Amino acid sequence: MKQVQFSMSRWMQGSGPDSEIAISSRVRLARNIRGYTFPCLAADSETEAVKNKISSIVAGIDDFSDFNYWSMDTLTELEKRALVEKHLVSPFLAAESKHGSLLLRNDEAVSIMANEEDHLRIQAILPGLQLEEAWREASRYDDLLENKLEFAFDDHYGYLTACPTNIGTGLRASVMLHLPALVFTRQINRLPGALSQVGLAVRGLYGEGTEIIGNLVQVSNQVTLGQSEEEIISNLFSIIRQVIEQEQGARQMLLDKQRAKLADKAWRAFGLLKYAQLISSQEAIQLLSDLRMGYDLGLIKGVSRQLLNELLVLIRPACLQLLAGRELNESERDIERPLQIKKALERRHNQESAGKI
Amino acid sequence: MLCEECRQNEATIHIIKQSDGKQAELNLCEQCARKKEELEVSFEPQFSLHKLFASMLNQSIRDSRRAQQAVDTQCPSCGLTFSQFSQIGRLGCSDCFKAFEEQLKPLLRRIHAGCTHPGKVPQKIRGRVKAVREIDQLKEDLKVKISNEEFEEAVVLRDRIKALEEDIRLVQTDGGEKN
User: Fold this and answer.
1) Taking the CB of the first residue and of the last residue of chain B, which one, N or C, has fewer CB atoms within 10 A?
2) Whole domain around residue A342: which residue ranges?
């Protein structure tokens, strides 16, 4: 069986539309198999039967030949947590599922989870703002599985799910946005209220205070019933486009007025990432945000969007330990983190000198 | 999802707090989030979406005049009772929806954009669901025609509904399409 490694996921490539602000787009579909109790209430034998059913069906479909399969109980805690940090499996599947399994496409853009909160969770995650493309990817695998399985579907309510917040389409779409200029100009404070008016939710990564760490925000749909998949996706898309335009406007304004300050911030971040000896994950996320903004505005060279995405993931606790090849406590991680950051920066430098980029 | 603070408004702000490598989530409405920000209260860890959802449901049960009846309902397939569902916030099987439909409907109206799914349908049952959706639409139209006293048009609609219902019945008894 293949080992979970720190490999590059497709969403980290840094390509795709609006990738200077939209880091990744994700769509997941919740599906259940008719005739089987939902995982949270099912007996052990039943969740095992569901897992085996799915793996045997998939083994017979050619379209799944570029997937790797793992039974979650064969993975170490570290491997499971690293998959969560890379956004390839849900925290629930990693920590709580009974007889959970994962099918992961080679490019890591499609994951199919068994015995999550629902029997099946089909996820597609792509770089940049590509919601429609992610929906098409997820739907394609939904079609393939639906040919061989009978999904729980009600003529009126649509796809039936364990939690009523997912019923109907079973679709949750989200985009990870990097919004340093909206945070800096405090316009971000208006965002949650405005988005909630149109049925969207905002999630930010917060630290000790109320400040958003790394200026990263995830926007997703709340409603899954009463709108078609296309409506949900296009609503989310058009709102995200507006947020992106606001961020672009704020960036331009900052660039006009505070160019030297922004450049300084980016170069300082670069310096710390290169030379600091102890870096906490929270500090690293903030520094990477400053560096990313400088890169996006053309104030700094020597990095790439792909490298920035790779760094954003490899500094997380489990990925860091996988790269180091051993378990590390928190203070050991703060020592290891700058070492791994340096290695990644050197790799990039070497590739550049070799003319590969 | 309702705000964990006031339990009045929809929670639209989801705060993920990270400390010592652990994550905790807090779900608030805009007003309460603002208050939190002003007070700089430190958030408690261990929030569970399902417990939240369950507490929101409990609230709506308490509000309901049908409270007694609601608690007593049981799903015939998996045995989950409605009171158990309101504890765990998750349904047990695909038949739970029919068993708890009365209690779930007001909740679904509150958290979603409607009570019917207009989107994707599994290929195998596309024909039937298309007919069901058409019947629903025709029934709405029929109500309008009747209230406008346009009885001739109403009869045409009624016959169309009957024909479609007959089609669905035939398909089901033929076994050509299974639910």
Assistant:
1) C
2) 258-353
